[in-house]
Amino acid sequence: MGGEDVRGPALMFGAILLFGVLDANSKLLSGAHPLAQVLTVRFAVLLLIVLLLRRLAPGLMGSLATRHPRLNAARAVVMLGSACFFFLAFRDLPLVEGYLVFFTAPLIVLLASAILLRERVSALAWAWCAVGFGGVALALAPGFSGGVGRGPVMGYVYALLGTACYSAVFILNRQLRNEAGIGRVLFWPALLGFLVMTPFGIAEWQPPTALALAQMLGAGVAVAAATVMVAEAFRHAPAARLAPISYTGMIWSIAFDALFWGHAPALVTLAGAGLVVLACVMSERAARG
Asked: Transmembrane region positions (predicted)?
């Protein structure tokens, strides 16, 4: 197998690992620093990286101009919502439980595609959709057996809202598929996030330690690097080959939960997670016919 054959999957694996590091990093920071402060620094770094890369590698970033300002504005809003809600979710929940809710995103996209975009969805895809949501219910059942989950109920609400926002990003990406470019995907959400979060970040600023500041700065670098890696992965491999790799995020969530917080998921949680991943993969295959 040649290097070109493995480049796409390797880039995707790396991107998913970076996103996992980003989520664990957010959870570590959330104990001492407010959301607005962390995101202000993240978006500032992201803006600087985009502008620097535009100067050093303009071909990589592409144009920032758009023929669809409303769609790009909507994408920036839901990307900001996703960042905010997942920060709050991971503050309150074990990573693996937040990821369980997050991995329903392909199923939500399937539902939204049928309702909003009027795309035809096969009965088999709907069946797998039901299996996926059943897997989430199974996985979270131990935590809710006493009436509350392992984290506050609002943690699950935040995770669901973040997943809804992330799903909306996919829907908007489909509508903007003829206007490709990493620059647009990074710049406009970073600009909106910086403008919205900065006043609150300044008002709520907590003096960070050197380590915490490095974590905040590193988050912006991680977002930029992971986004570029995903885009490059799709240049070297088809979506059908790359999509299942995204579910390796569940492995990283379990590993980071154990490493930093000593949390080990129950066997039923792992079984439910397996059902969710299987349902997502099979529903995507069914949707492609």
From this structure: 34-53, 73-90, 96-117, 124-144, 156-173, 185-203, 209-230, 242-261, 267-287
Distance, in Å, from the CA atom of 201 to the CA atom of 36, rounded to the nearest integer, reads 4
| Nearest in space to 218 (alpha carbons), one of 36, 46, 54 | 46
Q: Across the chain, what does the average pLDDT equal?
A: 86
- The count of domains in the chain is 1
110: amino acid identity, one letter: L
In this structure, the dihedral spanned by the alpha carbons of residues 131, 288, 168 and 111, taken in order and rounded to 10 degrees, is: -40
CB 119 within 8 A of CB 113: yes
pTM: 0.86
DSSP classification of residue 150: S
Which tokens hold the place of 56?
Answer: 């050093």
Higher-confidence residue: 169 or 140? 169
Is the Cβ–Cβ distance between 253 and 23 less than 8 Å?
Answer: yes
The sign of the CA dihedral 224, 174, 287, 89 is positive
Give phi and psi for 241, each to the nearest 5. Answer: -80, -30
- Angle formed by the axes of helices 95-102 and 249-261, nearest 10°: 160
Q: 120 is in which domain, residue-wise?
A: 3-288
Separation CA 94–CA 2 (nearest Å) = 39
CA–CA separation, 62 and 185 (whole Å)? 10
